[in-house]
Write a structure and sequence with these properties.
Chain B: Belongs to the methyl-accepting chemotaxis (MCP) protein family. Chain B: Pfam families: MCPsignal (PF00015). Chain B: This is Methyl-accepting chemotaxis protein. Chain B: Keywords: Chemotaxis, Coiled coil, Membrane, Transducer, Transmembrane, Transmembrane helix. The structure holds two protein chains of two kinds. Chain A is an alpha+beta fold. Chain A folds into two domains: 34 residues; 66 residues. In chain A, a hairpin with a 5-residue loop joins strand 2 and strand 3. Chain A is elongated. The relative contact order of chain A is 0.20. The chains are: A alpha+beta, B mainly alpha. The interface between A and B is medium-sized, with 24 and 40 residues.
Chain lengths: 111, 565
Amino acid sequence: MQHATPASSKTLSQYRIVGINLAVILFVLSAAAIVPRNGQALVIVAPWSDPGRVIDVIGRAGGSVMNGTGAPYAAIAYSDDPGFTLRLFKSGAMLVLDGSLAFFCRSTSSL
Amino acid sequence: MNYMNSLRTRAAIAIVSLLWINLGMMVLRYLWGMEADPVVVLGGGAAIAGVATLTWWRDRTGTATQISTALAHAASVALLVYAFSGSPLQIDMHMYFFASLAICASWVNWQPILAFAGLTAVHHLALFFLIPAAVFPGETDFSRVVLHAVILILEAGALVALGHSLATAFAQNDEAMRETEAANKQAGEMSRKAEAAQQQNLEDARSREAERAADTERLQFAMQSLGRGLRQLAQGDLRIRLTDRFDETLEVLRSDFNSSMESLEQLVAELSRSARKMSEGSNDVCSDAERISQRTEQQAVSLEETAAAIGRITENVQTASKRAGEAGRLVDEATKNASVSEQIVSKAVSAMTEIEGSSRQIGQIITVIDEIAFQTNLLALNAGVEAARAGEAGKGFAVVAQEVRELAQRSAGAAKEINALIETSSTQVSSGVTLVNQTGEALRSIGEQVKHINDYIAKIVDTAREQAADISEINSAVVNMDQTTQQNTALVSDTTKSIRGLATDADGLVAKLAVFSVNETSTSRPSAPAARPKTAAAAPAPKPVRRAASGGGAAAAAAEQWDEF
């Protein structure tokens, strides 16, 4: 087995460091992108759940449904209270995204 | 550590500190009240700043640190923009992208600038399509993204160029610093060498001073010795020699002086000998010149006599020439006479021919007369016959016929004699014609010979004339020789006077050269050859013979002729 030269190992280390930083940055920015703002959240439950499951979760988290989506396991919810996202996860939501990302689920005007 | 590293080290502190300042601004925004999720903004900001700080802590100025901090700044500003979501100031926060990009340029490297610009571009494009409200407030369109991208590219390009220029300048600065340091070291080395050289110069100056004093002393000694020698030279003593040795550098001067004195002594001695020889030779030449003068006068007299003799010869030749001319004229006349004789001979020949023709005509007439005599005789016979027939009546007629017959016979006899005479005359005329022709031939040959004689006489006349001209030239040449000889006589007398003056001057030169004192060795060497001119002067007469013997046989003969002359 060949050992890497000091120069190549140093380059590899530098790539690794930049990669770590970039990973953290992408994670934070992605979080910023997908975390709900203005109280609007795209609430997604397990696709195999009951059709009314997402309504149930939003209701238990103290929010209200603003709009539905093309998928029965996703809906756009709204709440003024802080900690709405945390409450949604506690209520059984599998994924909570920003409400502006609802186009992923082809939003509709009715459930 | 060079200036670039120093600058990057200080810039790194500012860049990392600015990340934490951004976090403080996020906190302030949170306290002010924001729509964005505080956990994401504050937690994310802290995580980004923390990881970047750790990276910086591990390597202060490495390329990974530069790129990571640039990415962290881009992300931090993006979080601030995100924190201003819902605020009208959100769009203004975009200016912070450009400010942060400029701050990242303090790394003086193109990699962090490109990382910052790349991340910002990807972030804006992605969010514009995904969540426009996260980056731009209110309604927006793609033109704004394009405008921001153009500005970003321009700024990134400018900053890359600026960084490159700065890097080049820093490299040149570092090179200049290294060169300055090397120059300083070299200057120090040169300064030490200069001090050593100065010290060496001082020591050399002291040693030169001592050498100069010694040289001055030796020079004074040499100058005094030379002065003493020159004083004796001025007094005419050429026997002086410098015996005390000089310094090595001036020894050449002493040897040159001694050799010069020796040469001068020899020169003066030889000059004295030459002057004595010249004096003796001048006296010899003087006596020779007097003899030459006498001989030249005798030569002039002989030349005068020769000129007179040649004049007489010229007259004789001219007389002979005149007589030859007269003989030529006589021969001309003889030639003319010979041509006249030829004409006479031809006339004689024609006359003889006419005589021959007349004789032939006479012969023909005589033949006719002989025929008549024959016919007359025949008629007389017939008449006698007829008379006989007539008898006695015809007796008288018979006598007449007989008489006629006799006359005819006598006429025939006379005609035969005349014919014989005419034949004889014709024969003699033929021989006369032959003789006359021979006489003409002889006269023609005489005329031609006379012509030849005339030509020879004409040539003799021309030759005599040319001889007369040549003798006239000889005469004039002899006259010129006579004049030249007389001029030579005058010149020889002048030369004799000059040689006498030269002898006097040579005696004076000998007397003047006697002022110089020279060694006997210098004068004794040439004494043997100096005796020779004396013997030559004692017996000057055979001298030309001796010279001629050394010069060759022809010259000897010439000298003998001159002696006889």
